[in-house]
Specification:
alpha/beta
Length: 115
């Protein structure tokens, strides 16, 4: 899985650089996110602008990461394309996770320390 991580103040922006986020990549995603959480990071923006397809394994990985965050932590989604947004709506994950139009909006939602 092609991922990039960039610190923006107290928030880590995680960019998925592949057009497909599938179960095969979910273990690596979960492992790399767990490493960041273990190092003390607790606020994340997941930039999905490149992702055109997301399967149930990937959704499970995202939810698993959210559950592993400390109580003060959060993961917010940004730049979600229509096909992925539809999946999030059908699975009602859009009721659990905050979704923003772009990374800047998601960063601003964390307040002044968010970038």
């Amino acid at each position: 899985m092609n991922l990039s991580f960039e610190g923006q103040g107290d928030v880590v922006v995680v960019r998925l650089l592949s057009s497909r986020f599938e179960a095969e990549a979910s273990d690596e995603f979960r492992r790399r996110m767990t490493e960041y959480i273990a190092s003390g990071a607790s606020h994340f923006v997941l930039d999905l602008s490149a992702v055109k397809f997301m399967d149930s394994g990937a959704l499970g990985a995202v939810l698993s990461v959210v559950k592993s965050l400390p109580s003060t932590g959060d993961l917010r989604l940004a730049a979600v394309n229509d096909p992925v947004r539809t999946v999030l709506r059908l699975t009602r994950i859009d009721k659990v996770l905050s979704i923003f139009d772009d990374v800047d909006d998601a960063l601003r939602s964390f307040g002044p320390s968010g970038g």
